[in-house]
Amino acid sequence: xxxxxxxxxxxxxxxxxxxxxxxxxxxxxxxxxxxxxxxxxxxxxxxxxxxxxxxxxxxxxxxxxxxxxxxxxxxxxxxxxxxxxxxxxxxxxxxxxxxxxxxxxxxxxxxxxxxxxxxxxxx
Length: 123
Known about the structure:
Layout: H1 2-6, H2 9-15, H3 20-35, H4 47-53, H5 59-66, H6 71-77, H7 90-98, H8 102-116
Helix pairs in contact: 3-8, 5-7
């Protein structure tokens, strides 16, 4: 995971036959995975499973939810990984540390480019 999260996307694009969209998605997933705790209590969901239940599978998914501007959603969601809501939000802490990941910038730029250059299928 760490190698994928920190790999040069340009090198991966040039030296593999993997579609760019898939590479970007894998890097995006690996960034989130690296920052999540692997600690699992028997009989309970893992942190990955908790986030997946809410549709969060990548670092940019987490960023989109926590920076959505939906105050009610953020207030409820930000503590789902905490055992105690009196502690600082684990998800807000993860989001803050993700912003220091160089590849997150590239992932966001690629997704923004791809989103703005989609051609409608019905044309």
